[in-house]
Write a structure and sequence with these properties.
mainly alpha; Phosphate_PstA; cell membrane; transmembrane helix; transport; MetI-like fold
Length: 269
């Protein structure tokens, strides 16, 4: 009986995995077929108003970069605190809240930032978009830093203390260096997560057809523009949406592969 149940579960699991892979393959094949035919070099030289993607790509990376500048220090310091300094029930509460935030729908975060930033200021902006992306990024970094530091053997901490080093020097010079590959991998994966987000930016930054570096106004966004272009009745706009989707997918895939490569490199050592 147990053998029969095991074979049944194995078959159902394999069948479900094949269905998921089939849909993923279908999406990728459709994206490549429709997107790669619309990609040309001028896309990267012209702004959206001229039928290009330059301002959108730069705008998306600017907001993600600003979000990273805020989220990485906050997330790493919080993760270090939880693993190295935190004691008591509140540590578990913080970890649980971080896990909840990781699974929170991005559109909810967008609505939250809309309520606390966009409504008081009276306008969407690149700053609001960056804040929403940073909020999404922080719990991922906290979780990654916390988990990677927990994998560092206690003997390394004890050895550093035995040599007379202060706790913060042990953390900086020994523990973080031992976990740096895993932490960097987590940072890359968290960046890949936010670079492809659309829902929070719909409420916070919107998008712009023109090149701008002014974060106090509506800011160019590749993901939001894909949404707008895909709903445009003109075929040329839909072709541009496919091209933008292809470019975004390649960028996210490259970031994810880099993170996986670093992770596998660490395991190889």
């Amino acid at each position: 009986m147990r053998l029969y149940i095991n074979k049944t579960i194995l078959f159902l699991s394999t069948f479900s995995a094949m269905i998921g892979l089939a849909f993923l393959g279908w999406i990728l094949i459709t994206l490549i077929a429709k997107g790669i035919t619309s990609v040309h070099f001028s896309l990267f030289l012209n702004d959206l108003v001229d039928g290009g993607l330059r301002n959108l790509i730069i705008g998306q990376f600017m907001m993600a970069g600003i979000a990273s500048m805020v989220a990485i220090p906050v997330g790493m310091l919080a993760g270090i605190y939880l693993q190295e300094y935190g004691k008591g029930k509140h540590v578990r509460v913080i970890r649980d809240l971080s896990d909840v935030m990781m699974s929170a729908p991005s559109i909810v975060i967008g609505a939250f930032v809309y309520a606390i930033v966009v409504i008081p200021t009276g306008t969407t902006s690149g700053f609001a978009g960056s804040i929403s992306l940073a909020i999404m990024m922080v719990p991922i970094i906290i979780n990654t830093t916390d988990n990677m530091l927990s994998l560092v053997p206690k003997e390394l901490r004890e050895a550093g203390m035995a040599l007379g080093a202060s706790k913060y020097r042990v953390i900086l010079d020994i523990i973080i260096k031992a976990a740096k590959v895993g932490i960097v991998t987590g940072l890359l994966l968290s960046f890949a997560r936010i670079i492809g987000e659309t829902a929070p930016l719909l409420f916070t930054s919107e998008t712009s057809n023109y090149f701008t570096l002014d974060l106090s106004q509506s800011f160019p966004s590749l993901t939001v523009s894909i949404y707008d272009l895909a709903n445009d009745p003109q075929e040329s706009s839909r072709d541009l949406a496919w091209a933008a989707s292809f470019v975004l997918t390649v960028l996210v895939l490259a970031i994810n592969l880099t993170g996986r490569f670093l992770s596998n490199k660490k395991k190889g050592k």
